Amino acid sequence: MASDAEALAVALAEARAGRAEGGIPIGAALVVDGTVLAVGRNRRVQDGSPILHGETDCLANAGRLPASVYGRATMVTTLSPCDMCTGAILLYGIPRVVIGENRTFYGGEDLLRSRGVEVVVLDDPACVTLMNDFIAAEPTLWNEDIGEE
């Protein structure tokens, strides 16, 4: 059974792997019934994709699942989910989201909460440091990822 901290460690490992590949360091894990079912990382740079954020890559890696599985899932992500990832979480009815940090970026948390999703923010120092270091080193790439100039 993966605790929130254990699942976040898995997502953080994905984020670090993505950064080592030259990508954006955001990772995710889909946990169902205490088991990590799938992982993913932001692969926009690596795959030249406009939509492969950590959460969407994780959902793609999980494959097609019945609604009953999503309904028991927790999406664990190193960073507050953007509007696109928030929409995917809502679309599939994932009832719980665990966020490593939301200091460097505050995404769709309020929308998730307004739709009944339990949102847990761990404020993990390793996640904060990883994103602060990345944003300082690659501000143009970061702004591209979040749709800003």
Automatic annotation (TrEMBL):
<dbReference type="InterPro" id="IPR002125">
    <property type="entry name" value="CMP_dCMP_dom"/>
</dbReference>
<keyword id="KW-0479">Metal-binding</keyword>
<dbReference type="GO" id="GO:0008835">
    <property type="term" value="F:diaminohydroxyphosphoribosylaminopyrimidine deaminase activity"/>
</dbReference>
<protein>
    <submittedName>
        <fullName>Nucleoside deaminase</fullName>
    </submittedName>
</protein>
<dbReference type="GO" id="GO:0005737">
    <property type="term" value="C:cytoplasm"/>
</dbReference>
<comment type="pathway">
    <text>Pyrimidine metabolism.</text>
</comment>
<dbReference type="GO" id="GO:0046872">
    <property type="term" value="F:metal ion binding"/>
</dbReference>
<dbReference type="GO" id="GO:0055086">
    <property type="term" value="P:nucleobase-containing small molecule metabolic process"/>
</dbReference>
<comment type="subunit">
    <text>Homodimer.</text>
</comment>
<keyword id="KW-0862">Zinc</keyword>
<keyword id="KW-0378">Hydrolase</keyword>
<dbReference type="InterPro" id="IPR016193">
    <property type="entry name" value="Cytidine_deaminase-like"/>
</dbReference>
<dbReference type="GO" id="GO:0072527">
    <property type="term" value="P:pyrimidine-containing compound metabolic process"/>
</dbReference>
<keyword id="KW-0963">Cytoplasm</keyword>
<dbReference type="Pfam" id="PF00383">
    <property type="entry name" value="dCMP_cyt_deam_1"/>
</dbReference>
<feature type="domain" description="CMP/dCMP-type deaminase">
    <location>
        <begin position="2"/>
        <end position="119"/>
    </location>
</feature>
